Amino acid sequence: MRKSDRQLGMRRDITRRDFIHGTGIAALSLGLPSRVAGGQLAPAHAPAAGRYYPPTLTGLRGSHPGSFEVAHELALEHKDFDTGEDLGEEYDLVVVGGGISGLASAHFYRQRFGQDSRILILESHDEFGGHATRNEFHQGGPTRLVWGGDFNLEYSAFSEQGNALLTELGVDIDRLLERNDFNYGSDGELGPAVYFDAETYGRDVLIPGFTPRWGDFASILGKLDAVPLSPESRDSLKRFYSTRTDVLEGRSPEERRQFLRQISYIDFVRQYGGLTEEAAEIFYNTTHGYWGVGADSLSVAECEGAGLPMGHLLGGEPNTSGSVGGEVVHFPDGTASLARLLVRALIPAVADGQGMDNIVTAAFDYSQLDRPESPIRLRLNSTVVHVNETDRAVHVGFVRDGKTANVNGRSCVLACYHSMIPYLCTQLPAAQREALAYQVRRPLLLTNVLIRDTKAADKLGISGAYCPGRLHGATWLVKGIEVGKYRHNWKDPGAAVMQFWGSVEPVKRGVDIRRQHQSSRMRMLAMDFEDFEREVRTVLDGMLGPAGFSAADDILAITVNRWPHGYAYDYLDLWDPEWPPGEAPHEIARQPFGNISFANSDAGAYAMTEVAIDEAWRAVNELQNQRPRTEARTHGPSSPNPGS
Length: 644
Ligand SMILES: Cc1cc2nc3c(=O)[nH]c(=O)nc-3n(C[C@H](O)[C@H](O)[C@H](O)COP(=O)(O)OP(=O)(O)OC[C@H]3O[C@@H](n4cnc5c(N)ncnc54)[C@H](O)[C@@H]3O)c2cc1C
Hints:
Blueprint: H1 5-8, H2 24-29, H3 34-38, E1 59-62, H4 69-75, E2 85-96, H5 100-113, E3 119-122, E4 134-137, E5 144-147, H6 160-169, H7 173-178, E6 193-196, H8 198-201, E7 205-208, H9 217-223, H10 231-242, H11 253-262, H12 265-271, H13 277-280, H14 288-291, H15 300-305, H16 336-346, E8 376-379, E9 383-389, E10 394-400, E11 403-414, H17 421-424, H18 430-437, E12 442-451, H19 455-460, E13 464-466, E14 472-478, E15 496-502, H20 513-526, H21 529-544, E16 555-567, H22 585-589, E17 596-598, H23 609-622
Parallel strand pairs: 1-16, 2-3, 2-11, 3-8, 11-17
Antiparallel strand pairs: 4-5, 6-7, 9-10, 10-11, 12-15, 12-16, 13-14, 14-15
Helix pairs in contact: 5-16, 5-23, 9-10
Flavin-adenine dinucleotide (FAD) binds at residues 71, 96-102, 122-125, 130-132, 149-152, 154, 383-384, 415-417, 420, 444, 446, 563, 566-567, 600-601, 607-609, 612.
């Protein structure tokens, strides 16, 4: 029988749950202890309580309460914000969006137009980096770092300017590779696993050595009797994994290509792989983390990239390696290290040091982000609501602490979500606004759970599992990435982060993909912390409980990184036409307008760090900057605490 909230520990260690729902930052600026602000155990070695330091906040993070409400008032309720107070601040460049693309835009601008350029970066969240954000835990003793979003640095896909940026920031890929031993939950003694949960499948069953995505088919066949599906579905899986055929025999290469782009993976494995609906369902959410989309909305060709089994039905070999995509490397906090490197290069006062070795452990002083004496200022908790091009300047209005204010820039780079821009910049031509609105981002979820130790997982011989019936389609331990003085390897017996990775299913499958994303987004935002907490406690209890894990006692902290605007919209075989060169929505959307240009991974219609950087490069190089430079007026008082 499913355990009660009390048995799962839902009431433990979380003393002031209401603070999680939006006042964590307020609590920090009021100097409340971090136990209250984060709703979890007091950090043992955390930065001093009361200091503004978002990485240690637990509870609802990612698009945290307070980060999106103003934007939703503008875009969904069409609220008319006034221009507000003129702060008298004049910049060479105003950047909207402090993600990798916005930060890289500031970096490239300074390179192109001079180190003394005055730049303001406006960011709606309480943290910089966009998806490149980090979660920092101290509750289990030694610091444990993990990413809250963007994590794979796909270095082999970096362009010339992307590589040049890495070099300038002191990122040494060869050295990162030497101490990179993270393999997405396949490091356990028995390899990866699948967890079939009691709520969906009637009983909890963990099958080590079996993954729906890849593996040795002979070994998988030996495990299928344990799969808690109907006998008919189990038989269909046995046939599926023992068949070697070419269901497209006789078709030309072009016909094959067309076919594989026109049928969804789920339809393919049902119609050509002989799986029952129930059996095919175990693949549905395996693509959630990888694509932000269920396998029913992805073509077979797209699912090949995600490593789903199909080669054995197409005259090829089964996918046994689990290797997908290009060559990757990690920092312990994912690409948050890249964001931190960029911020430290732009505003050296925030942290000491140079290069990548100390970036992971460098103490960041957020009070230095927005100082009037600094040529580069990064202003958090500031949602831009107006961007207007005039003869004299680009006027940029933003809301902070409930008040609207405005500043001027000679030019402006919009590095925010493109679907938002039509509401900010109403001057743009109708066709461009329509093209911008096409880029509906894919919601993603990344929940980090700090557990007391990994004894139960070690006993079971696993380091992660696919979870076909659950909200998060996969979970894995994060260990084995060491940079500089940061240590956390697989032999460490102490606390570790179990990461849960996926998306939220839309209310209705099969409808237009952008409607699916909007539906997932609304569902994600409607869930509160307790919904996510109950979910991860239930999974950990069912999966690791039989090996001695106690969901009530062994969970030290939970951070839910919800990203309702997750991956940039890249075009999908089943949903988007093939546009002639230059006519795709993202190409129309990113045309410069006066002294405004458009960065962000949305501008490349591809959700990757390297694209965010390349689009920043293009956007900066499109700026003309012919206006005379305005002299800085007094900037008024600085923000002693970016959260105040
Ligand atoms: C969970 C997750 C995992 C990922 N993993 C990887 C990975 O492993 N490898 C990879 O290459 N990519 C990954 N990505 C893709 C990631 O989106 C890109 O790599 C990259 O970080 C995107 O940077 P960006 O600057 O284009 O966008 P974002 O990071 O979204 O930054 C845009 C910024 O604009 C801000 N903004 C929006 N509107 C406004 C406004 N009106 N006013 C002020 N600010 C505003 C937002 O708050 C945000 O900070 C992942 C994404 C997610 C969500």
